[in-house]
């Protein structure tokens, strides 16, 4: 089983500032982490490799510092890491991101399974997994919470739905996104840390991918961020005074007035 895990480096805080001129995040001075959902994707990739043999490759599109996230992935079980980094990729929306990742996956050629997290904690769209599957023309299963079996080029998984689980069978290769209920990610091992320190991370740009320049970065993005802002909080709390019965009666009146009950 050759497995590819897509992993994104994200700001490790919600206290980010927005550049009002460019409508992008101010990334200076912000600690970056591996997108938490992607640690579950990575762990599942490592477990599948341990169970069925094969190779685990991690792939990330991002600025040069995203290399740190890839080294962390190697310390947690990945065999190889590829960073997709090029000025031409800057300003990518989910469509251009998925196109770039899909080009890289096609270049890797021999793979059986692509695993993504269910969503990131910064962009938060959950679009990249399904877009990747569409671009690679592969079957797709979202919200996978358990991989039951992989056999004869087929995979049976459980996916979480609102009121339970669905069991899905799909031929491989396929793309899945995973939820955090799927496993408990391991900590880096000492051997892993040593391997991560010495690992050579391949860096591929638009040229290496043979990418169409009009499909990557800002020029390949179908959407534009017109404005980005933190919502104003206009709600003020009110403390009701009086006896408990009186407070409850007034609270009910207020909820009725606001058409909330
Ligand atoms: C118009 C527009 C402009 C933008 N400009 C910028 C910009 O200038 N700079 C910037 O940093 N962001 C920018 N973004 C955000 C960027 O589009 C998203 O971060 C990116 O497309 C991924 O979407 P997401 O974070 O919602 O991922 P989701 O779809 O929520 O992620 C799902 C899964 O896909 C995988 N994945 C997602 N992104 C990556 C990645 N980069 N590498 C590997 N795997 C990944 C992970 O497994 C992840 O768990 C822009 C967005 C828009 C709409």
Write the layout of secondary structure elements.
Elements: E1 2-6, E2 9-11, E3 17-19, E4 24-26, E5 32-34, H1 36-52, E6 55-61, H2 67-75, E7 80-84, H3 94-108, E8 113-117, H4 128-136, E9 140-151, E10 154-161, E11 164-171, E12 174-178, H5 190-198, E13 202-204, H6 206-209, H7 244-257
Parallel strand pairs: 1-6, 1-8, 6-7, 7-13, 8-12, 9-12
Antiparallel strand pairs: 2-5, 3-4, 9-10, 10-11
Helix pairs in contact: 2-5, 3-4
Bound molecules: flavin-adenine dinucleotide (FAD).
A few lines on this structure:
With 261 residues, the chain is α/β, with parallel strands linked by helices. The chain has seven helices and 13 strands.
Describe the structure in your own words:
The protein has one domain (2-220): HUPs (Rossmann fold, 3-Layer(aba) Sandwich), CATH 3.40.50.620. The chain is 30% helix and 27% strand. It has seven helices and 13 strands. The strands form three sheets. A nine-stranded mixed sheet has the order 11-10-9-12-8-1-6-7-13, with helices on both faces. Strands 2-5 form a two-stranded antiparallel sheet. Helix 2 (67-75) runs antiparallel to helix 5 (190-198) and helix 3 packs across helix 4 (128-136). It is globular and about 70 Å long. The N and C termini lie far apart (55 Å). The model has no long low-confidence stretch (mean pLDDT 93).
């Amino acid at each position: 089983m050759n497995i590819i895990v897509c992993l994104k480096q994200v700001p490790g805080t919600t206290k980010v500032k927005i550049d009002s001129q460019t409508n992008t995040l101010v990334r200076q001075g912000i600690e970056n982490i591996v997108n938490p959902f992607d640690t579950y994707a990575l762990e599942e990739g490592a477990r599948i490799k341990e169970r069925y043999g094969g190779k685990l490759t991690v792939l990330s599109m991002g600025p040069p510092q995203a290399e740190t996230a890839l080294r962390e992935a190697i310390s947690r079980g990945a065999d190889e890491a590829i960073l997709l980094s090029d000025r031409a990729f800057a300003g990518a929306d989910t469509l251009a991101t998925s196109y770039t990742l899909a080009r890289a996956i096609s270049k890797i050629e021999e793979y059986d399974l692509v695993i993504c997290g269910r969503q990131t904690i910064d962009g938060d769209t959950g679009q990249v997994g399904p877009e990747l599957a569409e671009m690679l023309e592969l079957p797709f299963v979202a919200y996978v919470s358990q991989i039951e079996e992989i056999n004869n080029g087929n995979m049976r998984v459980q996916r979480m739905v609102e009121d339970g689980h669905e069991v899905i069978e799909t031929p491989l290769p396929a793309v899945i996104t995973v939820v955090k209920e799927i496993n408990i990610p391991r900590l880096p091992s000492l051997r892993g840390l040593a391997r991560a320190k010495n690992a050579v991370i391949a860096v591929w740009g638009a040229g290496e991918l043979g990418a169409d320049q009009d499909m990557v970065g800002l020029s390949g993005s179908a959407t534009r961020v017109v404005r980005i802002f933190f919502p104003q909080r206009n709600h003020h709390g009110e403390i009701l005074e009086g006896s408990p019965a009186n407070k409850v009666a007034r609270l009910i009146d207020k909820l009725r007035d606001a058409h909330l009950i």
